[in-house]
Amino acid sequence: MKFLFLSLILFLIDQSSKLFVRGFSLPWFNINHSGLYLGESKPVISDVLHLTLVENPGIAFGIDPGESLRDLILIVTILTCVGFLSYLIFAKKADNNVRVSVALILGGAAGNLFDRIFYGLFYNYAPLFQGNVVDFLDIRLFRLFIFNNIHGNYVFNFADISILLGVFILIYLILSMKSRKKEKNLIPQFVEDREDPA
C-alpha cells in the first residue's frame, strides 16, 4: 500500500505543478489562476532554470515520434500503468527496491497519461484522449542538444523526472542482480581450480 501511496503523491505533485504553470479556473469558488501562455518563459534562476510552458504531443522529455504514433503511445501508456499498478497490488513479496522503482515509473506515467486523457477537454483544445502533455521545467545550465525544443533548451516536467529516476533504479537493480549471479557462478569454478593439484 505504501508504494501505491508513493505513486499517488508523485502524481499529485506532478498535476499540481502543471495546473500552477498552465493555469486553472474554479468558478464555484471564484478562483482564477491564469498561469503562463503557451511559449512564455519566466526565469526562476536566470540562465539556469526557467518556467517555460510547452505542450508535448509525444512521449516523455519532449520527444515527439509523430502524429501517426499518438494513439499507440496512448495505448502503451495505459497498458504500462495497468501493468505496474497490478504489480504493486499483487507482487507483495517482491523486492522493495524494485517496487519503489515501479512506483516511481507508475506515478510519472499516470501523471502524463492524465494530461493526454483530460487536458484537451479541460482546456478546450481537443477531445477526450487527445490532449498534450504539459512541460515547463526549462534547464538552461546545460545545453542538451539531443532534446532541443523550440527554445533550444531541455523542457520537461516532474512526471518525466519520476519516470527517469524509476527506470535508472530498475536498470541498476537488474545489472546488480546479473553481476551477483555471475559472481555466484564463478565461485564454484574458482574452488574447483584451487582443489585441482594439476
Structure write-up:
By secondary structure, the protein is of the alpha+beta class. The chain has one domain. It has helices at residues 2-22, 70-90, 96-122, 158-195, and strands spanning 24-26, 31-33, 41-45, 49-56, 133-139, 154-156. The strands form two sheets. A four-stranded antiparallel β-sheet has the order 3-4-5-6. A two-stranded antiparallel sheet has the order 1-2. Strand 1 (24-26) and strand 2 form a beta hairpin. It starts with a helix and ends with a helix. The model has no long low-confidence stretch (mean pLDDT 87).
Topology:
Layout: H1 2-22, E1 24-26, E2 31-33, E3 41-45, E4 49-56, H2 70-90, H3 96-122, E5 133-139, E6 154-156, H4 158-195
Antiparallel strand pairs: 1-2, 3-4, 4-5, 5-6
Helix pairs in contact: 1-3, 2-3, 3-4
Give the uncertain stretches in residue-range form: none
Task: Note the main sheet.
Answer: 4 strands, antiparallel
Structural class of the secondary structure composition? alpha+beta
Oligomer: single chain
Number of domains: 1
Number of strands: 6
- Rg over C-alpha atoms, rounded to the nearest angstrom: 22 Å
Encode the helix/strand succession as letters.
Answer: HEEEEHHEEH
Strand content: 5-15%
**Strands side by side in the biggest sheet:** 3-4-5-6
Number of helices: 4
Cα separation of the termini: 57 Å
Brief account:
The chain is α+β, with helices and mostly antiparallel strands and 198 residues long. The chain is 54% helix and 15% strand. It has one domain.
Q: What would the keywords be for this entry?
A:
6 strands; 198 residues; single chain; two-stranded antiparallel ribbon; alpha+beta
